[in-house]
C-alpha cells in the first residue's frame, strides 16, 4: 500500500497520491509525481550528465546487455510467479524494458531521484509507473513481490537504510535483487566520476542484507573472466597524469572489442544459470527473500 510522505498514513489513493487523512497531494513536474522534492536538484550520488551518456551506449555495450540478461535469468529462476516489481534507480529504463518483454504480466514501477532518467525511461513505452523518489524513504508498505536495485546502493551513503526500506516495501515471501560493484581494491577514478561511495565485498553485502531482515538465497560474482582486464585498466587510470572522462575510457570502445568482451561475459552467464557461484569478479549479484 502507498504511504503518505507527509503524515505516513496508509490511505493514499490514485495516481496523484492524495492522502485521505491529511489531504496532502505531492506536486508533479513534467508528468511525474514528485515524492522527494529536495532531491530533484540536489543529489550527490549520481552525475545527471551520465543519464544521457549512458543512454547512448546501453543498448549495445557488452556490460549493460549481458548484465540485463543475467538479471532476467535470475528473475525467471528465483521468483517466477511474481505479479509486481519496483526497480529503484531505474535509470534510463532499459532494465525495465527487458523485464517487461520477458514478463509481460508483471506490474512494473520504476523510481529515480532525478527527473533526467525518468524522461529517458518514459520514451521506451514500457508501461511502467514512473515516480520520483528517495530510496532512503520508500513510500510503500508490503506492496511489491520483487524489488530490484541494480548498481544503485553504491551511490548512497545510507545504504543500510535503503535495505530497511526495501524490506518494508516488499511483500512477505517476496524478494530483492541487487547488483553492486565488487572489490574495494578496484577503486578508481571511474568510481569517483560515477558518484560511488564504495565498492562491496561479498561478506559486507550479505551482512547488510541480512541485518535488514532478509534471508539470502543466492549470491555470485560476475565479470569474472574480464577481471584481469579490469585490474590493468584501473592501474593505468591510477598511473595516468591526464585528466580524462572515465566513461570515455571504460564504455566507449570499438565494435570488435565490444563483441569479443560480450562473448566472454556471455560465457560466464551459463554457469551462473546452472547455479554456480563465481568466486570473484567486478560485480556482485544477490537475491534474498523476505520471510
Task: Produce a short descriptive summary.
The chain is of the alpha/beta class. It contains eleven helices and eleven strands.
List keywords for this structure.
291 residues, alpha/beta, two-stranded antiparallel sheet, globular
Helix and strand pattern: EEEEHHHEHEHEEHEHHEHHHE
Distance between the termini: 18 Å
Secondary structural class: alpha/beta
Helix share, percent: 25-40%
Strand content: 15-25%
* DSSP summary: helix tally: 11
- Radius of gyration equals 19 Å
Biggest sheet, open or closed, and with what strands and sense?
9 strands, mixed
Task: List the strand order in the largest sheet.
Answer: 3-4-7-6-5-8-9-11-10
Secondary structure: number of strands: 11
Give the rounded overall mean pLDDT: 90
Describe the structure.
With 291 residues, the chain is α/β, with parallel strands linked by helices. The protein is 38% helix and 20% strand. The protein is built from eleven helices and eleven strands. The chain has helices spanning 38-41, 49-55, 62-78, 94-102, 115-122, 159-169, 189-194, 202-211, 227-239, 246-251, 255-273; strands at 12-13, 18-19, 28-29, 32-34, 84-88, 107-112, 129-132, 144-150, 170-181, 215-222, 283-289. It has a nine-stranded mixed β-sheet with strand order 3-4-7-6-5-8-9-11-10, sandwiched between helices. Strands 1-2 form a two-stranded antiparallel ribbon. Helix 5 links the parallel strand 6 and strand 7. Helix 3 (62-78) runs parallel beside helix 11. The radius of gyration is 19 Å and the shape is globular. The two termini are 18 Å apart. 39% of the residues are buried.
Amino acid at each position: 500500500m502507498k504511504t503518505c510522505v507527509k503524515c505516513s498514513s496508509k490511505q493514499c489513493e490514485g495516481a496523484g497520491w492524495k492522502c485521505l487523512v491529511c489531504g496532502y497531494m505531492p506536486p508533479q513536474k513534467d508528468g511525474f509525481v514528485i515524492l522527494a522534492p529536495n532531491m530533484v536538484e540536489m543529489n550527490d550520488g549520481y552525475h545527471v550528465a551520465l543519464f544521457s551518456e549512458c543512454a547512448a551506449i546501453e543498448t549495445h555495450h557488452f556490460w549493460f546487455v549481458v548484465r540485463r540478461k543475467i538479471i532476467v535469468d535470475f528473475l525467471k529462476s528465483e521468483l517466477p510467479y511474481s505479479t509486481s516489481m519496483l526497480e529503484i534507480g531505474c535509470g534510463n529504463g532499459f532494465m525495465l524494458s527487458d523485464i517487461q518483454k520477458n514478463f509481460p504480466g508483471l506490474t512494473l514501477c520504476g523510481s529515480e531521484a532525478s527527473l533526467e532518467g525518468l524522461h529517458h525511461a518514459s520514451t521506451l513505452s514500457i508501461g511502467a509507473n514512473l515516480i520520483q523518489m528517495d530510496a532512503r524513504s520508500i513510500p510503500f508498505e508490503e506492496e511489491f513481490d520483487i524489488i530490484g536495485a541494480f548498481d544503485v546502493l553504491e551511490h548512497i551513503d545510507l545504504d543500510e537504510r535503503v535495505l530497511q526500506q526495501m524490506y518494508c516495501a516488499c511483500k512477505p515471501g517476496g524478494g530483492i535483487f541487487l547488483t553492486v560493484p565488487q572489490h574495494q581494491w578496484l577503486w578508481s577514478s571511474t568510481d569517483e566520476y560515477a558518484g560511488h561511495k564504495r565498492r562491496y565485498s561479498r561478506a559486507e553485502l550479505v551482512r547488510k542484507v541480512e541485518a535488514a531482515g532478509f534471508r539470502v538465497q543466492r549470491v555470485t560474482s560476475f565479470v569474472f573472466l574480464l577481471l584481469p582486464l579490469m585490474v590493468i585498466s584501473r592501474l593505468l587510470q591510477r598511473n595516468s597524469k591526464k585528466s580524462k572522462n572515465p566513461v570515455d575510457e571504460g564504455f566507449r570502445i570499438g565494435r570488435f572489442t565490444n563483441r569479443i568482451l560480450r562473448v566472454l561475459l556471455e560465457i560466464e552467464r551459463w554457469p551462473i544459470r546452472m547455479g554456480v557461484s563465481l568466486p570473484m569478479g567486478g560485480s556482485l549479484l544477490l537475491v534474498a527473500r523476505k520471510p
